[in-house]
Amino acid sequence: MLPRFNVSSSVQHRLSTNFARQARISGHNHSSKRGVATVAVSRAPAVVASCRLVLRPTGNGSFEHIGDEVPQPQPIILKEGVFEVGRASPADIQIPIPTVSSRHALLRVEDNKVCITDLNSTNGTVVNGQELGPLDNIEVEVGAEVIFGDHFLAKYQLDEVHDGIAEQQAQQQQQPELSDQASVHKPAHINNTVDCS
């Protein structure tokens, strides 16, 4: 049995104060009631591998049928929302090719589900070989082929890629990612629901 020592209350106070000071300096959280130092453990956030949908150009890039050289199409990274595809502004997704209508199609993206509506475009919208009628709405599966009026220059395949790969492809192609705040210009009679039935 160990001998007991009497320690005055002022010494006890000094010891607990020094202990608390040392705990603060070393980053510990001191509990004066229990006289023990507890260490707050921070956990690193879990890394979640998520996927994105990308329209990857698959046309041969020929512009002979147009006559003038045009920019080659770039991959289009899709985010959730409703976006208008067209040749120029104010379209949210711009494909600057003369055979793409100024208001060509509407894309609805939600929970890895993509629906396309043709907006009565001049050269039509084709999904897996099926031409959409004006204002026809169709769900597009991953791996599907989509043509916005020009099978040489505006032909795409819907792919699913990991976030890092999608961002890397966008940077390599110098294509800015589609903004969450993109303005949407759509006819009033087309609703925002994603149900393609």
UniProtKB/TrEMBL annotation:
Pfam family, one: FHA
Coiled-coil spans in chain: none
InterPro entries: Cell_Proc_Reg/RNA_Proc, FHA_dom, SMAD_FHA_dom_sf
SMART domains according to UniProt: FHA
Top-level taxon: Eukaryota
Chain ranges of the FHA domain: 83-132
Region listing for Disordered, in residue ranges: 167-197
Name of the protein in its database record: FHA domain-containing protein
Organism encoding this protein: Tetradesmus obliquus (Green alga)
